[in-house]
Amino acid sequence: MDFHARRLALSQRLYARSPGAVWAELHQLFRIARDWGIAERETDSPRISPLRIYRETLLLAFAQPTKLAHGDFSRVQAYLAAHGDLAEIASGVRLDNPACVFAIDPRSDKPGAAYTKRVDMGLENGELVLLTHRLVERLETQLKKLRDGVAPAMLALPDEARTPGYPELMQRLVMHWRGDPASSARHACASTRAWSCGSACARSGEYCGPMRPPRRRRRTSPFASSRRRRASGSSPMRARADSG
Q1: Choice between 92 and 131, residue whose per-residue pLDDT is larger
Q2: What ranges in the chain are assigned the alpha helix state H?
Q3: What does DSSP say about strands 113-114 and 88-91: parallel, antiparallel, or unpaired?
Q4: What is the structure's pLDDT at 136?
Q5: Are 156 and 83 a contacting pair, CB within 8 Å?
């Protein structure tokens, strides 16, 4: 399972398509580990278990890794290593709220889908679900306290959480791991970027206005004027002849 998880992580880090049949084999291996009662058994070195590998690989996939900014992939992996155990994998649960629930189809070669996207279909008997309620609550609490000025070390976060881009990443993770529609996630990310930028500018005393892309200067060729004259049917020789 660790080998397949590393293959998936490599393809995600390189913004490439997932290798074929890897997800299907990962689902099958985890089901075997559950049936044999060894899903939570940890190895000595490194200290990992089938449950932890499967859970963190699913969470990373649901974080939309191919849309992460450069460097954010490693930050998400580090966050999952510290807090990923707050998510749960269960089966046969009663769902009152589709938020923070991801349906896992072990017959598919895909990680699964947010339950909000398939709530009308329901869950099949014995189908696994990934529950992210506690993980999302932890993220929201950390994000609020960061904005209130609490030191990252007090929240079990790295020092780089002080930078404006880290709260933006956390807000995106809240949206993705809650299973929000894409439009809501984009709106929330835009709001977080505005807050982060405003906070940074307030600290530096600089003006923070709307950012616009730089205007591109048109590059003109020395032959452009002659091409325009030929297109219009005129030339310097003809102009002198007409004037004579």
Answers
A1: 131
A2: 2-13, 22-35, 50-62, 72-83, 133-147, 165-178, 182-204, 224-232, 236-243
A3: unpaired
A4: 97
A5: yes
